[in-house]
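Exercise: predict the structure of this protein bound to adenosine monophosphate.
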Amino acid sequence: MTDTTTMQCTALISKMIEWQQDMKASNRTIGFVPTMGFLHEGHVALIQEAKKNNDCVAVSIFVNPTQFGPGEDFEAYPRNLDADVRLAAQAGADIVFCPEVEEMYPTDGGIRIVPGPLADQLCGASRPGHFDGVLKVVLKLVNIVQPTNIYFGMKDAQQLAIIETFFRDYNCPATIVRVPTVRELDGLAKSSRNVNLSDQERNEAPAIYETLQQGQVLVLEGVANDVVKQFVTDELEKKTSGIVDYISILTYPQLEEPTAKSKNLIIACAVQFPKARLIDNIIFEREG
Ligand code: AMP
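Solution:
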């Protein structure tokens, strides 16, 4: 736990760079946890994991406009910087980097990072341009913070697969650490967006993970993927008032259609409620 009075907090890129240069000058390793804030126990798990394996930890809090499409929930995305700073300090962060949009994006030279076919599936199919924006902010943050290790949650499995591929193909020097999904007691994946669910939707939402688990069992029993996907869709439509955006079974992390021989799989879905789009997944192995 870091004292809130000793933990640093800066909205300036120049200060953040100064901090990481000081750490590097004294040969300290830097663990970095990029977030969009409204921190919960999922984020805390990432920060704690970073604290365990690095000399110091930086957490960024930035609701990144470039990864939200028109009509998405950029404005409605929950924010609470004071609470975030307290929680980050309790979890062991040494510095919180919380820039304004103008600090991160003062100019736009028009250069884009295009994630390619990995972004055609799952969330990328219904959120065109989303992963372009994710890669843009991650590259900027990595250049600013220059971490030794960077922490990502497996709840955002497609994001993780795309960032891992990007880092590998472009020789980004930080090591990516995958952190398992942290869940509520009833199985719902913790998410900043959960506060935008009504009471009734919150009661329905655990059906997402429950149904994915049932889908996983069916895949392992050898049931055809199309049958499993229809089953999961029907169950989610029965048990929730949300609209099923997609349910997919793919190889992981390649995100390709599986063959009978594919061993590493993901079953993933997105359910759109009026004010919150929830995603969840299970990554698992089967006998190839
Ligand atoms: P976000 O603030 O939602 O952009 O998430 C920041 C990081 O926290 C990402 O790497 C997410 O995958 C991760 N994260 C979000 N929710 C969870 C969760 N329930 N369990 C583990 N990691 C999570």
